[in-house]
Specification:
The protein has five helices and no strands. It is an all-alpha fold. Helix 1 crosses helix 5.
Length: about 140
Amino acid sequence: MKKFYKAIFCSGMPARDLKNANRVNLWGLAWAFSLLVVTYAAKQDWLDSILLISLAFLAHTAIGITMVLTFRHMLKELDEMEKKIQLDALALSVGITIICFSSYSLLAKAEVVPSLNSAYLVMLMALTYIAGIMIGRVRYS
């Protein structure tokens, strides 16, 4: 259990890695918040012109690109063990998401289940990535 708590709270990680991870987390929250705001604005019909739609799209996309570049910067500065943990977590996340999406889409085509909401895929990917990081940190600590 102690290893699990250390994995959650990142104890033992260098200050530089924690700072980079916090930056990624903040940009991730900003991206999710911008998605929430733009989606809400679209449902309220506040985006009623091409200019507003374009600005919302550009802002959300710019925040997303900044998040990805910040994540890439973090990965470049990690030590080899943490890079391995991140790579394993990313592989698990992408693999599980692809398998679940393809399996679900077969059921949707057979009209056994309703069509898939893309938000569920994003959530699945995020949760399996988090689980992969926890598993890796417990395994290699």
